[in-house]
Amino acid sequence: KAKNHTAEQRKQFRLEKEKPILEAFWNWLDQQRPNKGTRLAKAVNYAQNRKDTLMTYLEDGHCSLSNNLSENAIRPFTVGRKNWLFSASPKGATASAIVYTMVEMAKANDLNTYKYLTYLLSQRPDDKMSDEQLEQLAPWSETAKTNCQN
Q: What does the pLDDT read at residue 83?
């Protein structure tokens, strides 16, 4: 499975195996001549206008062609959105969204959520920290993984 490989290995696989398939698809799509104004014409035009963006998937093994992980991560947030209309203030709603994001990022990086939040609070991040210090607090950093792994 792809998740058992490094990002560089996934990139190499994509370039060797998937790029020819995608190039064949784009060549086929370029040959299509659907009737103007039809839904098919709109779909072909939509895809052609986004070709460069869609092809960036091949350039980085960290990227996924699917956004299912993102969709699943925000689902509880969108379901709870109506409840958050009753936040005491806009700042309260923003704070809730920030905490929720931290929790979901910890989950996405296979960290123990409680340990990660405790770790963040113990470090007391602020605007005076350097980029390197802030990067160490990111859930994908080796420091966070060492301190907060499940």
A: 66
